[in-house]
Structures are given as structure tokens and as C-alpha cells.
Amino acid sequence: MATCLFLAGFYAIYQNKINLQKAHFTSWHGLFGVSTVVLITSQSLFGSLLKYGKMILQAIGVVKLVKTAHRYNGLFTMMMSFTVVLIVTLDWIYLITIVIPSVIYIARSLLVRKITKEKKKLEKDH
What we know:
The protein has helices at residues 2-19, 28-52, 54-60, 63-89, 92-125. It is an all-alpha fold. Helix 4 packs antiparallel against helix 5. The longest helix is centred in the C-terminal third of the chain and has 34 residues, at 92-125. It is flat and about 60 Å long.
């Protein structure tokens, strides 16, 4: 339901640009915004597949792949959404020098921790 409302809002913005005969996705705000729309829509699709289509995913053997894609897409979507809000509200210098490197560092730390856990699990299993 939330994704449907989100897409309806995106459509309203897109249609308004058409009505005003303005170019689409020409600013950083627009580019980050459309990227966020793609990420949120794909996140919803992955989650729906895992919840309602698990038997199909099991039949073709991609459950683990879709779970992993859902997990990392969620992390990236969260970071992208956070960045869009910051772009609207913060000064560019602050954003480029402090915020974006911090978000990248946090994401890298989370990924390294996850990879380390997976390695330990694999070593334990063998």
C-alpha cells in the first residue's frame, strides 16, 4: 500500500512537470529522487517476492539470492533516502565533506561486519 501511494506521489510530480513543460530529472534533487523511487520500488518487489512467492523462488533456487538482494537493497535505499533529505536541507560543502563520507563509512562497516560473520559461519560449518 505504501509503495502504491509513493508511486502515486511520484506520478503527480512527474505529471506536474509535463503540465508545466519543464525538463525532468535535471537537478541533483531530481536525480536522487528518481533513484530513490527505483530503489524503493525494487525493495518492495523483493519483499513481496519473499513473502508471497517463496515457493516459486524455491523452485528456481534463488531464495538466498533474493534475500541477499533485499537486504543490501534495503541498506542502500535507506542511505539514498537519507541523502535525498540531506540534499534538500543541508549546505553542499557540509554534505560533500562530512555527511556522504560518513554514510559510506557506516555502510562499509556494516558490509564488512556481515561478510566477517558469513566467513566465520562458513569456517564453523567446515
